[in-house]
Amino acid sequence: MNNLKKVIPTKQAKDLYDALRARGVDAILEHPDGFKTVDIAILPAHIYIEVDGLHHFTDSEQIIRDFKRSHFSDGDDFNTFYVTNQLIDKFLDKIADALAEVVKIKTKKL
Asked: How many angstroms separate the first and last alpha carbons of the chain?
């Protein structure tokens, strides 16, 4: 296991986490998955959520690093949902509502 550092969540990750918890979702903020720390983990539904800045979608080197990081979740049967800080700032409630519904659907199937 790599040396995982304690990570301070971004405002947007914390806002989404709080919104999910308010909807009854069993979420964990800054969860170590064995290789990296994911912003939000919803273990019962096998969902990881990464709340990222725009550079994760516009910087080619960052995109390549993210591909490598996401590869480590390939075999653990978790889906990763990626969302930008900007989307959280503008559409927090709609995103949290949709994710809460996904959690309900996925936990019924598991």
From this structure: 27
pTM score of the predicted model: 0.83
Q: What is the pLDDT of residue 56?
A: 74
Q: Which of the four CATH numbers 3.30.70.890, 3.30.300.20, 3.40.960.10, 2.60.40.10 does domain 11-109 have?
A: 3.40.960.10
- If residue 99 lies in a helix (H) or strand (E), which one and from where to where? helix 85-109
Question: Could you tell me which of 28, 37, 41 has the C-alpha nearest to residue 78?
Answer: 41
Q: Are 50 and 37 in contact (CB under 8 A)?
A: no
The rounded radius of gyration (Å) of the Cα atoms in the chain is 14
Does residue 91 surpass a pLDDT of 70? yes
Please report the pLDDT score of residue 99 as a whole number: 98
Residue type, 77: D
